Amino acid sequence: MRQGPSVGYSAGAGRPHVIQPTAYRSAAGGPGVKCCCCTCCTCVNLNFLRTKPGMIKAAELILSSICLTLVLDFGLPYSSTMGEAFTVFLVTTCACLLVVCLLLFCYIISANSFNLIRSSVLETVFNSLACALYLTSSSYLSFAVFTWLKPGYLILPQYAVYPAMSAAYILGLVLGIVHGADAWISYKHLTGRPSM
């Protein structure tokens, strides 16, 4: 059953503002999960994960989860040693992971939400901000790790917090680059130009 366009009234002009979502179609088939001869859970659009934006969002989710696990498991006992660099990186990782989870959930549950959200400035602004936050907080954390944790690692080779936090800030730099690429792709989608 096809629904008509959404209509909203703006307070200033008195005329309706029509928002026409284009249905997001992928080459992999219809929505839902294929089970033998039938399709279950047709509200779920797992085909989104097979597209380039879906793979980028999944990569952001996985890398952010690894960063958060490393920071909480290894860095939390040494948070006072690293100072506010640890706190800034932890807040950046948690906030970006939350928004990526929310966006990925919306894209998987509703096929039209991808075009509606991507057509707005939300994705471009969020990914640009996430890129800047990850790059700055990872740089700050790398300074704190080299300054405060490396001397302990040189004395005690089993000092596991140094390699773990080094991996965390390197993954943070990678996440900054991935969010930057996603911001560029979102911007190109927003302006109507074809992506790479």
Structure description:
The strands form 2 sheets. Strands 1-2 form a two-stranded antiparallel ribbon. It has one domain. Helix 1 runs antiparallel to helix 6. Helix content is 65%, strand content 7%. The longest helix has 34 residues. InterPro entries: Marvel. It is found in: Membrane. It is a multi-pass membrane protein.
Secondary-structure blueprint of this entry?
Layout: E1 6-9, E2 16-19, E3 33-35, E4 38-40, H1 52-75, H2 79-82, H3 84-109, H4 111-119, H5 122-155, H6 161-191
Helix pairs in contact: 1-3, 1-6, 3-4, 3-5, 5-6
Primary descriptors:
single chain; Protein singles bar; Marvel; membrane; 196 residues; transmembrane helix; transmembrane; mainly alpha
| Percentage of residues in strands | 5-15%
Largest sheet descriptor:
2 strands, antiparallel
The tally of strands reads 4
Secondary structure category:
mainly alpha
Mean pLDDT: 86
Determine the number of helices (DSSP H or I, runs of at least 4 residues).
Answer: 6
In short:
This protein has 196 residues and is mainly α. Helices cover 65% and strands 7% of the residues. Helix 1 (52-75) packs antiparallel against helix 6 (161-191), helix 3 packs across helix 5 and helix 5 packs antiparallel against helix 6 (161-191).
